[in-house]
Amino acid sequence: MAAVFNPASSLTMRPSIKLAALALSLASGLALAHDVTISEAEVLAAQKAWGDALVKIARDYEEGGLNRAKATATAVIDSAYAYQVGPVLFKPTMASGDQTFRTTRQGAVSYFVGGDPAYPGDHGFALKGWRAVEVRNAGILLNGDTATTMGHVTMTDKSGKRTTVDKTWTFKKDDKGQVRIVVHHSSLPFADAH
């Protein structure tokens, strides 16, 4: 079970301050129409959706080739990541040199499916025959409209081989209620040579 930290739940505010803040909000005409506070359940659902999408890209590649996988990967990037909203910090597991960090949508799509001449080192991480993804959070930090998770993600391919990575994600919930990835850091676990 992951530790869940929510700093807002540990803050206390005197009732008179709460009423004053509410009165100021109402007086200034600010609408409190949509709650953008992110929940643990939303974070877990976003992680599951990411894993399911990785498996779908792999299956689409096997059943329909690279064009089908690329269309799926592009749709996944557009719905799961926040590239269209603002900056995204993405450090894939198997990227190096000048292309270690993927701050653009194009770079993210290339990492998942390859085939982009601007990223010649990409061979399509999502095309490796993935069949299952398991997320084991070490911790989840909830903070208003953002949440950060850290833990292990294990991916199983069609031969049953398991690959585990250390993963940190930061999710942001927008004013429409969509939870999107704004930080994604992935690395292979440290292997001590001693």
UniProtKB/TrEMBL annotation:
> Per its record, how is this protein called by name?
Phosphoribosyl-AMP cyclohydrolase
Keywords from the named record: Signal
Any keyword Signal? yes
Q: Which SUPFAM superfamilies match?
A: NTF2-like (SSF54427)
Q: Which positions make up the signal peptide?
A: 1-33
Q: Which InterPro entries match?
A: MICAH-like, NTF2-like_dom_sf
* Lineage of the species this protein comes from: Bacteria, Pseudomonadati, Pseudomonadota, Betaproteobacteria, Burkholderiales
